[in-house]
Design brief:
Layout: H1 6-22, E1 25-28, E2 40-43, E3 49-56, H2 60-72, E4 75-76, E5 83-88, H3 94-110, E6 115-116, H4 126-131, E7 134-140, E8 149-154, H5 164-177, H6 180-187, E9 193-199, H7 204-211, E10 228-233, E11 239-244, E12 250-255, H8 257-263, H9 279-282
Parallel strand pairs: 3-9, 5-8, 9-10
Antiparallel strand pairs: 1-2, 2-3, 4-8, 5-7, 6-7, 10-11, 11-12
């Protein structure tokens, strides 16, 4: 199977969710033939059509950081006595940090320091380390498998799960920032326009809340040009979404693995032109691990 972009998998998941919720046909509209095309076209049985634009909450900095630290891997250092874990922020300069880490970690060991917590302020090296994106450093005794050296890892992120209204507020703010969503929908010429937001782990609190049973309690404040809103938990099926159709009611839908298999079958319009039918091969990509 050819590598696909995360945008492709987002659109595929959005199509499955909308088709399952509304029992209608959803087709890809943006084939790249013209600028500013909306992503999806919704076709109702009575002949009405609607436009949908899909946007993701992925943090590009966090994605680039994950790739950089994965490429770096474990770094063995002969001048160290301990195994170090360097936790870094999304803006970390991993390449530069890897070059200076052996020296400053050795300095810490000589000073009898085995950890540098996130809240530390006393160490004179901190300004330079913070500038490189270091959040904290911890160490343990080395093992046979991991002799003295260091790892660079993204700093752990914790978030209060919150509720549906908290997720909605963030979604509203995103739509104000990503202005091309409104622009593309307005250019569609359709009377009904849907914004579909794929909620990734980069929004950990809203993702956790919506993965459970959270539903917003208030109507969305949508920009002019958007009538309907979908908040889709960006996970392989079973996939949950909550949605607003402008009729005063929030609803939710869960696409099961069985439904995904049916929607991806060769006879389904959602899979038109794509010979791949195994849902376990296709939907496993919607976690965003395919190439950009």
């Amino acid at each position: 199977m050819n590598q696909r972009t995360t945008k492709h998998w987002d659109e595929l998941l959005a199509r499955m969710v909308i088709e399952s919720a509304l029992d209608i046909q959803v087709e890809v509209h943006d084939d790249g033939s013209e600028p500013s095309m909306h992503d999806l076209t919704l076709k109702y049985p009575d002949g009405r059509v609607a436009a949908a634009e899909v946007v993701s909450t992925r943090d590009p900095k966090a994605r680039r950081l994950s790739a950089a630290v994965a490429d770096l891997g474990y770094q063995r250092c002969a001048n160290l006595r301990r195994l170090w874990i360097i936790s870094v922020t999304p803006s970390a300069k991993v390449g530069r940090l890897a070059k200076v880490a052996p020296s400053f970690l050795a300095d810490l060991e000589r000073a009898g320091v085995d950890r540098l917590p996130r809240t530390s302020t006393a160490d004179p090296r901190l300004p330079d380390l913070r500038a490189l994106g270091v959040a904290s450093c911890t160490s343990t005794a080395p093992t046979e498998k991991h002799p003295p050296g260091f790892y660079i890892n993204p700093a752990a992120v914790a978030a209060f799960a919150g509720d549906g209204d908290g997720a909605l507020r963030k979604a509203e703010a995103l739509l104000l920032e990503v202005t091309d969503v409104v622009a593309k929908l307005q250019l569609s010429g359709t009377a009904e326009r849907h914004a579909v937001i794929m909620i990734t782990h980069d929004w950990l609190g809203p993702h956790t809340a919506l993965e459970g049973d959270a539903v917003p309690n208030t109507p969305p404040e949508l920009p002019d040009g958007i009538d309907c809103l979908w908040l889709v938990v960006q996970l392989p099926p079973p996939t949950r979404a909550v949605y607003w159709l402008g009729d005063g009611q929030w609803r939710d839908v869960i696409v099961s693995e069985e439904q995904a298999t049916t929607l991806l079958a060769p006879t389904s319009h959602i899979n038109s032109g794509n010979p791949t039918t195994r849902s376990d091969k296709i939907v496993s990509q919607v976690d965003g691990q395919s190439t950009e």
